[in-house]
Amino acid sequence: MLRFAHTEFLWGLAFVPLLIILFLIVRRWKRKALASFGDREVIRRLIPEVSFSRPVVKFTFFITAYALLIIGLADPQIGTKTEDTKSKGADLMILLDVSNSMLSQDFAPDRLENAKLAIDQLIANLQDNRIGIVVFAGKAYVQLPSTTDYSAAKLFLNTINTGIVPVQGTAIGSAIDMGMRSFDFNDGTSKVMILMTDGENHEDDAVRAAKDAHDKGVTIHVIGFGSAQGSPVPIYDNGKLTGFHTDSAGHKVISRLNEDLCKEIATAGHGVYLRATNANSGMGIVMDQVNKMKQKNYTRKQFKDFEDRFQFFLAMAFLLLAAEFFISGRKTLRLSRLKLFEVKRP
Question: Angle at which helices 206-215 and 172-182 pack, to 10 degrees?
C-alpha cells in the first residue's frame, strides 16, 4: 500500500503544467523574434555557439527534478506488513439517487450536492463501520464496494454526478436489490441501507424490494430531498444552465418530493424516514439509529508498518538538478567540429 505522509506538498505539482506552458510561450516568442531578423539558416550561421536544443534538455531536467522534489517532500511510504485487526461496526450501503430531478434547486445549490455533502460529513465521522455506495437512476450501479478506506470513499464520492448513470429514470427497487447483492452476509455484521432520494420512483416496486430486504435482516432508512411545492428540473450543457425540462405541452416539469413513498419504503424496511432541510440533512439521526443496533466484530487486514521512500525521489531530483546546472546553453565548438562519421572520398 502506498501513502503520502504529507499530502499538502502535492499541491506543488499543480505548477508543473503552468511552468510547461510558460516555457512553451517563451520559446515560441524567441523563435518569432529570431525569425523577424531573417532566414533561420542564416541566423544559425551568424550565431554558431547558440544551441536551440539544449534549453529544451535543460528545462526537461529541471521540471522532472521539480516534480520528483515535490513527491519527495510529500514523503511517499510503502506498507510492508499487514495484520488482522478486530473491528466492531455495521455495514452501511448508501443508495444515492442521481436522476435529473436531483438537480432541482429547491435546496441550494441543488438536491444532489446537498446529499453528497451529507455523505461526506457521514464519512468524516465514521470509525469502524464499512461503507459502500450504490448510485441509481433508471438503473443501479455499484460506485463503491464496501470498504473501511474512508479516503477512497471520499474520492469516489467526488466523482458522482447525474451523468454517471446513462439511463435516466428512478428505479429505487433496483437500487435496493443491487445493495443486497453488494453485502457480504457471511460475516454476521448488521446491514443497513440509507436511501437518499426525492422519491420520484417510476420504474419498479420499491416497497416490495424494501420488504424483501428486511426479511433478510437489512434495515432501510430513508432521507427525502426536495419540497412539497417542487422545483423545475434544469438542463445543463458543459456546466452552464441552458433551460429546463418540459413536458409534451411545453410546460416546465416540476419535481416534487414524494414523501408518501419515502415513508412507505422506510416502514417496509423497518427504518426511519427523515426529510432533509437546508440546515439539517438528518444523517445524524440516522446514524444514532445505526449505533443502537447490535454490532458484531469482523476481521479486516490493515497495514501496520510503513517505510519512507522520500530519499530515492530527492536523490534523483538533486542528480537531475546537478546535470541541468552543468549543461551549457551554448554549443561546444570543439566538439561540433569533430566529424567522426564523415567519409572522405579520394
Answer: 20
- Cβ(137)–Cβ(112) below 8 Å: no
Q: Are 121 and 279 in contact (CB under 8 A)?
A: no
Dig out the grid coordinates for 52 from the structure.
Answer: 536551440
16-54: pLDDT as tens digits: 999 999 999 998 888 887 777 767 676 666 666 666 678
The single-letter code of the amino acid at 287 is: M
Q: Say which CATH superfamily domain 91-294 falls into.
A: von Willebrand factor, type A domain (3.40.50.410)
Contact 232, 254 (CB under 8 A): yes
Residues 6 or more apart whose CB falls under 8 angstroms from that of 32 comprise none
321: three-class secondary structure by DSSP:
helix
Q: What is the DSSP letter of 345?
A: P
Q: Which residue has the cell 448488521?
A: 190
Alpha carbon distance 102, 196 (integer Å): 10
How many Å from the N-terminal Cα to the C-terminal Cα in the chain?
67
Q: Could you write out the DSSP letters of every residue in 153-196?
A: HHHHHHT--GGGSSS-S--HHHHHHHHHHHS-TTS---EEEEEE
User: What cell numbers appear for 220 in the block?
Assistant: 432501510
Q: What is the pLDDT of residues 270-304, one digit of tens each?
A: 999 999 988 888 899 998 888 877 665 555 555 55
- CATH 3.40.50.410 range(s) for the chain read 91-294
The helix/strand/coil state of 343 is coil
| φ, ψ of residue 190 in degrees (nearest 5) | -70, 140
Estimate to the nearest angstrom the gap between the alpha carbon of 57 and the chain centroid: 35
Q: How far apart are CA 65 and CA 71, in angstroms?
A: 10
CA distance 117 to 123: 10
Q: What single-letter amino acid sits at 101?
A: S
Q: Say if CB 274 and CB 223 are below 8 A apart.
A: yes
> pTM score, two decimals?
0.64
Angstrom distance (rounded) from CA 195 to CA 325: 60
A 10 A CB-CB count for 307 gives 10
CA distance 224 to 216: 24
